[in-house]
């Protein structure tokens, strides 16, 4: 799959998974629910204030089909908790944030008793379709980790690799990005990149090929990598771009979307089910892609026999 | 001026300044010298190994016009020293790196006794012409400072502002970039951005308008800034993008050139004369833009009555 549209098509052909939305009383969220349901991308279980949902659907002429079930839970914390619980109990497969702070929903996901905590590190993965690029780029982490440690970077890579596998990239190529290709002890990004490369080589990060440090051009452009004489199985054809911190991640995310006109969908992974945390500024298209990516990722974890996806 | 081509045109209309090249015995450098001279962008004083220069111009059929003078200085360190000295003595106005490590030429520029040291902080300024953008973007610092301190950021802003003024942007709008718009004590980029804004307001960074933290989209896109409800004289129309570290700067530089197809020229400023440090990977066009920017910046410092430009 080398376009986000093809991901959407793929999802349409599969039996629907079910998405639990926490605090669904929001116009944009309900529009996304309507379209995702109508175009056979997913079914939904909405937790939130039922009368407010009703008022919005009436006013906005949103018609929710039989694939949508509503549970009246007016309290925000409780809506988050019940949405997460519904995945625990097998009623739903994916969690989606509605009209509630991202921190609240992630707290419920990470709750040690009732949450969906796995190894403990959640991270954001954005999948980009860039005009002219031959492959999808997975960019991580542009949203959650301010300055991840080496150990966190290992988990962030694993999380992104799970998303990559769901897109049929079986052994994703991971480029830890830095400003240069050489190891410089004064530049922690280059040091971590070198360590991650060796860790992957030693089997400490299974199922991926990691080679860094690489500057962005040499990670994504075969011409640039060749011109610089870099011999690498990752350079010029990276699937996953691991950014060293939130600033570089955010700058890449924004320049690809705003300047380069790329399409994007993003999800939070690392728990036992993907979490959709689209923001108000996201386009409708970006929301659909996020939902599709979450479905693909949940499906793949089903194939890998994790217990939490129920068909 | 809102294109790099218009900067080139502007330079052509002015009397030529003179560029001192350190270690000019390089094919690409000599080609750039030939074209810059032939198209009335600058005159040159070449320091380096004269017989090797001669061999290259013969082999590559490069013909150097009367605007080029050669001084035989085969030792690299000495070529750097003499190139810098020639600006000191008034024989030249700009320093350009030839076939020599960037560190060597910058060391000569920063030499306390014979160099061109001013306030002591040199920084790199890249001027981008991005398809679809209304103005040129000055990006700093994508090349020299790994993790600048607050004090260094102040000097980096002043350096970029000097380049902006040479492009007739009299009061440049500066956006210190972060991942978010709010001040978060856990995110040093947001803290420094807020401090720089207040410092500019208090007159501690004269001649600029600074407002941050701003994420990249809200710095450059009026639509994004409006959508987010950000009230600011900088948001959506920044001239200077101050990146918090070399990784975010480099990622922006590379994504603009490689992905978004932007044109770029860059120079090193902060000494008493601009320094041209184009790299082997730069296109011929990028080298011409760098030369033109250096000329504009040197001209402007002449207008501002600094003593080092001699016409």
Spell out the blueprint of helices and strands.
The structure is a homodimer of 311-residue chains.
Chain A: H1 4-12, E1 18-22, H2 27-38, E2 43-48, H3 50-60, E3 68-72, H4 76-88, E4 94-97, H5 102-110, E5 123-129, E6 137-140, H6 150-166, E7 173-176, H7 188-201, E8 209-210, H8 216-220, H9 222-227, E9 240-242, H10 246-259, E10 263-269, E11 275-276, H11 284-303
Parallel strand pairs in A: 1-2, 1-4, 2-3, 4-11, 6-9, 7-8, 7-9
Antiparallel strand pairs in A: 5-6, 5-10
Helix pairs in contact in A: 1-11, 2-11, 4-5, 6-11
Commentary on this structure:
The structure is a homodimer of 311-residue chains. By secondary structure, chain A is of the alpha/beta class. Chain A is 42% helix and 16% strand. The first copy, chain A, has helices at 4-12, 27-38, 50-60, 76-88, 102-110, 150-166, 188-201, 216-220, 222-227, 246-259, 284-303; strands spanning 18-22, 43-48, 68-72, 94-97, 123-129, 137-140, 173-176, 209-210, 240-242, 263-269, 275-276. In chain A, the strands form 2 sheets. In chain A, strands 8-7-9-6-5-10 form a 6-stranded mixed beta sheet, sandwiched between helices. A 5-stranded parallel beta sheet of chain A has the order 3-2-1-4-11, sandwiched between helices. In chain A, α7 links the parallel β7 (173-176) and β8 (209-210). In chain A, α2 crosses α11, α4 (76-88) packs across α5 and α6 (150-166) packs across α11. The two termini of chain A are 23 Å apart. Mean pLDDT of chain A is 94; it is low at 307-311. Chain A binds chain B through residues 130, 132-133, 142, 146, 177-180, 186-187, 189, 215-217, 220-221, 224, 227-228, 243-252, 254-260, 262, 281, and chain B through 130, 132-133, 142, 146, 177-180, 186-187, 189, 215-217, 220-221, 224, 227-228, 243-252, 254-260, 262, 281.
């Amino acid at each position: 799959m080398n376009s986000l549209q093809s991901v959407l098509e793929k999802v349409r052909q599969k039996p629907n998974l079910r998405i639990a939305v926490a605090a669904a009383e929001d116009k944009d969220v309900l529009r996304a629910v309507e379209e995702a349901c109508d175009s056979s991308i997913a079914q939904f279980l909405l937790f939130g204030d039922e009368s407010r949902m009703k008022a919005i659907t009436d006013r906005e002429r949103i018609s929710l089909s039989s694939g949508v079930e509503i549970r009246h839970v007016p309290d925000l914390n409780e809506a988050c908790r019940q949405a997460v619980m519904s995945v625990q109990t097998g009623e739903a497969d994916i969690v989606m944030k509605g009209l509630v702070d991202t921190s609240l929903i992630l707290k419920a996901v990470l709750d040690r008793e009732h949450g969906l905590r796995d190894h403990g590190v959640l991270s954001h993965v954005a999948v980009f379709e860039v005009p002219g690029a031959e492959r999808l780029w997975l960019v991580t982490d542009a949203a959650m980790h301010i300055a991840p440690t080496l150990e966190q970077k290992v988990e962030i890579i694993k999380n992104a690799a799970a998303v990559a596998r769901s897109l049929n990239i079986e052994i994703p190529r991971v480029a830890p990005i830095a400003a240069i290709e050489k190891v410089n002890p004064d530049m922690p990004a280059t040091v971590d990149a070198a360590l991650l490369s060796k860790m992957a080589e030693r089997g400490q990060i299974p199922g991926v090929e990691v080679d860094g440090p690489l500057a962005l051009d040499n990670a994504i452009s075969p011409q640039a990598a060749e011109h610089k004489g870099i011999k690498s199985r990752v350079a010029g054809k990276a699937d996953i771009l691991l950014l060293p911190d939130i600033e570089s991640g955010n700058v890449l995310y924004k320049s690809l979307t705003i300047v380069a006109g790329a399409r994007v969908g993003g999800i939070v992974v690392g728990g036992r089910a993907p979490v959709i945390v689209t923001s108000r500024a996201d386009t409708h298209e970006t929301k659909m892609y996020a939902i599709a990516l979450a479905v693909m990722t949940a499906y793949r974890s089903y194939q890998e026999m994790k217990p939490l996806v129920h068909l």
